[in-house]
Amino acid sequence: MLITLDRHSGQPVFRQIVEQVRFQVASGMLEPGSAIPSTRDLAGRLGVNPMTVSKAYAALEQEGVLDRRPGLALVVRARTDAARTNEQREELARLLRPAALAAEQLGLSADDALAVFRKALAERGGSNELE
Amino acid sequence: MNSNDACVTADRLAKHFGNAVALDAITFAVPRGRVVGLLGRNGSGKTTLLRALQGAVIPTSGSCSLFGTRSVDLGDADLARVGVVHQENRFLPWMSGRAHLDYVRSFFERWDLRREAQLVAALDLDLAERIGAMSPGAVQKLAIVTATCHRPDVLLLDEPAAALDPMAREALLQSLLDVLREDEPAIVISSHALRDVERTVDWILCLDRGRVVQDESFDTLQERYAEWRVTTQNGALPAHFAETWVLAQAAEGRQAVLTVESPEDHRALFEQRYHARVESRPISLERMFPLWMARRKP
What stretch of H or E contains B248? Predict the structure, then answer.
């Protein structure tokens, strides 16, 4: 599990961890059932207080992203395909909200903004499903 | 918080020097495993507080304690569980760094030679040098090693990075986190280097003129304040926003930049009221700090 922190972004470190784990789970980079590094291990690698990692893991557990089994490592919770698709949409929506605001500030119509997004997808070679 | 969990406590702690009030009825508690950034302007009482916690300053009223024992009553066994880095460290100038550490080690049962070697290497400290010939930075490094190798349960650090270069600073912060993972001490670190503080601490205790003006988890503070870039589509924004939660502002025509408190509580209503769109960003500790200074009524 690879996490990178921006220590001067102003966003709480525990929240950065939560968002990156959530994204990796939604994208399938972290598969259901796979074990998550221990609090001390991740804290050591990231150079943060173990309490910060505990806080992130507790939040992820409460959101249902991770499962805690007594005496064992935390694992990624199993999810249905429908739930997974839903998570993927939510992740993308989260990332697009600032872009929607920018589109509005720039005075682009919804159609113009969608065209820009389609083009960006096409540049990645992933436009087919949305056409 | 259960008082058994708190390693470091102050209860209406006050210290007057003549007519000057250095500490004005301060109350707080620090549990194990917490790294507290002790902030404040020059003369705000930080050093007096750290000295009172060690029992080196006798309170005028109120009290402070380590491990549940009043600081003024701390015995040798209690003091052996405390590590201290002073702003100015006076070590014997004729000793080498090596001789100094061997001398200090003789007072402690649980001096950790492995940690000593790690720290000396990480901080790039030359122990062969005579203390009198050391640079201020090297003396500060030696003070850090001196304060941490007996594996203290409480670490009190008064501007420990002030004389350190950027690489040594980084090594110090990393070493503190290693110490934290191994021993889970309570750490109180006073500093003006807010960007360093921001990286390491999980709690902020901010003093101003001897009073506590902030005692809060850093995560909470990071989400309590925000900078808003406000744009309105129809008409101009007011020249001045009178909302009490707007802490600082600069407006020009259809745009404004506001520093706000509790952003998510107010955003929807604000956008509606001013027909405005808000782009919210977190602010750094450097930007928060002046807010706490300004809020105090003289």
Answer: strand B246-252
Instruction: Tell me which of A49, A101, A108 to substitute to probe the interface with B (most B C-beta atoms closer than 10 Å).
Output: A49
Can you tell me the distance from the alpha carbon of A55 to that of B220, in angstroms, rounded to the nearest whole number?
A: 12
Complex ipTM value = 0.73
pTM, entire model = 0.85
- In this prediction, residues B138-164 reach a mean pLDDT of 94
Residue B220 tokens read as 């909470």
Q: Which of B114, B125, B218, B104 is nearest to B171 (CA)?
A: B125
Give the SS3 label for residue A97: helix
Phi-psi domain of A116 (left: phi exceeds 0; alpha: psi -120 through 50; beta: other): alpha
Residue B4 CA to residue B119 CA, distance in Å, equals 31
CA distance A43 to chain B (A): 8
Q: Give the SS3 label for residue B230.
A: strand
The SS3 call for residue A80 is coil
φ/ψ of B7, rounded to 5, equals -80, -35
CA B263 to chain centre: 25
Cβ of A50 within 8 Å of Cβ of B174? The answer is no
Q: Which residues pair with B250 in a beta bridge?
A: B257
